[in-house]
Amino acid sequence: MDNNLSEEVRLWQEQLFKRSIRRKRKVQKIDQLLGNTAHLQGLEVSAGDGLISAHLRSLGGSWKTVVTTERAADSIGYASTEKAVLINNAKLPFEDHTFDHVVIVDALKGIGSDYDFMRECHRVLKNDGWVVISEEYRRPFSLAALLRRAFNLSPVAQGQKRNGYRSDELYTILKDGFDVPETMIYSNGLLESAAVLGEYVQKLMTRDPYWMVGEKTGQEHLYRYRHLHSAASWTYPFIWLASKCEFLPGHKLLVKSRRRHWRPRRQPKLIDGRSIAEAAINTKIGTAAPF
């Protein structure tokens, strides 16, 4: 991509970002958990959103970026002069205790062994480091999820390993090496359902998400950006109203976890080999006899 085209792509991406209530809210929530990053070493794990990557760098400190796919690396490249590193078999190419914090933005669900990857994050973090994870909150029976399945827009349908996480699922992969003092669920179902309809319209125009800038992005993509921006401008008031329905269940999950010594937390077993949970399920409460 030549410099003039790259600059025009960046300008249109910035305009589209301003029309995306969901992306702006995600950045605000991440900022809220990150706090002051000046003079700190940060690692970003990205799914390819170059503007969010650039925003993290604007907060201060030193940053490295790793990505899950080559497409994501190309997309990050238009927003940063530093080449993103591709994750290989859930391994990170950094020394132990390198970073003060790790920020994972919508990328964990695309990694095969998320538990092994979180152990890698634990390894590269300093002893008092922490990790911030932004992901989909998995609600399989919500309207947004039903629309995603109907339009073939679920994360799995788009090449991810899983459709997101519940809070307890994320805790399971963090519990051996991290404390989880802060969990936030936001972005209500009406907003997410409207966003799915927008994603379907976008899919009719271009294969990749509009925020994924490919290596072969050309003038035809700028034409699509203009049309997407026009559509987003018309629908913005309705999306804004939908975003105010905070009484509805949230569909985005944000977690901040403090690093501690890695120690597998094994579930206690009874003499007969059953877990306490299994025994509770198969035993009538208040008796010692099988139910």
Radius of gyration: 21 Å
| Number of DSSP strand runs | 7
Strand % is 15-25%
Strands across the major sheet, in which order? 3-2-1-4-5-7-6
Number of helical segments?
A: 10
The CATH architecture name reads: 3-Layer(aba) Sandwich
Structural class: alpha/beta
The coarse silhouette is globular
CATH class: Alpha Beta
- The CA-CA distance between the termini, in Å, is 68 Å
CATH superfamily, by name, is: Vaccinia Virus protein VP39
Ranges where pLDDT stays below 50 over 5 or more residues in a row are 283-291
CATH topology: Rossmann fold
Number of domains: 1
Overall helicity: 40-55%
How would you characterize the largest beta sheet? 7 strands, mixed
- Average the pLDDT over all residues and give the rounded result: 88
Order of helices and strands: HHEHEHEEHEHHEHHEH
Offer a quick outline of the entry.
The protein has 291 residues and is of the alpha/beta class. Helix content is 42%, strand content 19%.
Descriptive overview:
The chain has helices spanning 3-18, 21-34, 50-58, 70-77, 114-124, 143-150, 167-174, 189-205, 219-243, 276-282, and strands spanning 41-46, 62-67, 85-86, 99-105, 125-136, 178-188, 250-259. The chain has 291 residues and is of the alpha/beta class. The protein is globular. Strands 3-2-1-4-5-7-6 form a 7-stranded mixed beta sheet, sandwiched between helices. The protein has a single domain (3-261), classed as Vaccinia Virus protein VP39 (Rossmann fold, 3-Layer(aba) Sandwich), CATH 3.40.50. It contains 10 helices and 7 strands.
